[in-house]
Design a protein that fits this description.
The chain is an alpha/beta fold and about 325 residues long. Helix 5 links the parallel strand 5 and strand 6. Helix 1 crosses helix 7 and helix 4 runs parallel beside helix 5. The chain starts with a strand and ends with a helix. The protein binds uridine-5'-diphosphate (UDP). Uridine-5'-diphosphate (UDP) binds next to helix 6 and strand 8.
Length: about 325
């Protein structure tokens, strides 16, 4: 039985991946410091996995204790834009130093593959659509920069230490167990909580901007295909093969809207060119937005304790975004 280490395994994508790997009979080890991940996400499988409550940004004996690991799926990271602008050092520690500490684990083990979860935010405001892996790298804020630096590290370790590594650049992943608490985060969590509270959806600008919303199960299949394939030292975009407007989400979720200001540094469109992953990993996404939203609505109770954002609280929460990235200094 192969042993897979999932960093960030108590988080949104991680916990879904853990379920998938267990269903395929892998032995799963999870490392997570539960800073944004939730024990609830893995409580149903705690007796089937090895759970290590550890902050990966801190070097330690835990690195040496991780033995006979066959695969590492490195998902642990700090996400969200605003806190990354306010505390870039924390993001550097988790996303860059943390990645280096995981690479040390990879070096100590004869791993068959390390998969890194990179972010489409590395493209910033892209010049061409769909955007391919060779497009310019233009991070707009510390979260995007630190995730990109993590990718540079893993690719470099692949080169120098001959580690089989693959980086997957995820585009707007959504699905069950996406984070519900804490900072102002991804749009689906915000809209679902607003829907449950019968409050209007806070649509940024005119809502015509589009995103490549990718359902979590498609992302997990991409991770798995990359893990078992003999492809290494490559970077792939992972998206839905489509791009959908915010107005389209509103149409599917149904409900009143209110408008909030366009956010500085935001692209009007994200849309992955996924032909490389299709060709080399023999992977393709299966869930379109309508089906994905149907699955969310069937599980909407998951968001019942999520904070309900409104114009005022969003204005407060995004002040540093406008302060640092906007024109008004
Ligand atoms: N968005 C919105 N209302 C919100 C939050 C987000 O209309 O309250 C829009 C935002 O303008 C963007 C899309 O939803 O076009 C996705 O935003 P999110 O923050 O989820 O991800 P991003 O693409 O910015 O990383």
């Amino acid at each position: 039985m192969s042993r897979v280490l999932v960093t960030g395994g108590a988080g949104f994508i991680g916990s879904n991946l853990v379920d998938y790997l267990l269903s395929k009979n892998y032995e799963v080890l999870v490392i997570d410091n539960l800073s944004t991940g939730r024990l609830d996400n893995i409580s149903h499988v705690l007796d089937k996995i090895t759970f290590i409550n550890q902050d990966i940004s801190q070097k330690g004996i835990w690195q040496l204790n991780l033995k006979n690991i066959d695969y590492i799926i490195h998902l642990a990271a700090l996400a969200d834009i605003v806190p990354s602008i306010e505390q870039p050092d924390k993001y550097f520690e988790s996303n860059v130093i943390g990645t280096m500490n995981i690479l040390e684990v990879a070096k100590n083990n004869k791993i068959k593959k390390l998969i890194y979860s990179a972010s489409s935010s590395c493209y910033g405001i892209p010049n061409s659509f769909p955007t391919n892996e060779l497009s310019d790298i233009k991070p707009q804020y510390p979260y995007a920069l630190t995730k990109y630096l993590g990718e540079e590290l893993i690719m470099h370790w692949g080169l120098v230490y001959k580690l089989p590594v693959v980086s997957l650049r995820f585009f707007n992943v959504y699905g069950i167990r996406s984070r519900t608490s804490g900072t102002y985060g991804a749009v689906f969590g915000i809209f679902l909580a607003q829907k449950l509270a019968n409050k209007p959806f806070t649509v940024v600008g005119d809502g015509k901007q589009t995103r490549d919303f990718t359902y979590v199960s498609d992302v997990i299949e991409a991770v798995y295909k990359a893990m078992i394939s003999n492809v290494s030292n490559e970077i792939f975009n992972i998206g839905s093969d489509n791009t959908y407007s915010i107005n389209k989400i509103v149409e599917y979720l149904k409900g009143p809207t209110t408008s909030i200001p366009k956010r500085p540094g935001e692209p009007d469109c994200t849309w992955a060119d996924i032909s490389k992953a299709k060709n080399m990993l023999n992977w393709k996404p299966k869930i379109n937005l309508q089906d994905g939203i149907k699955k969310l609505m069937e599980n909407i109770d998951y968001w019942k304790n999520a904070p309900v954002w409104d114009i005022q609280s969003i204005h407060q929460a995004t002040k540093s975004w406008f302060k640092y990235l906007g024109d008004e200094k």
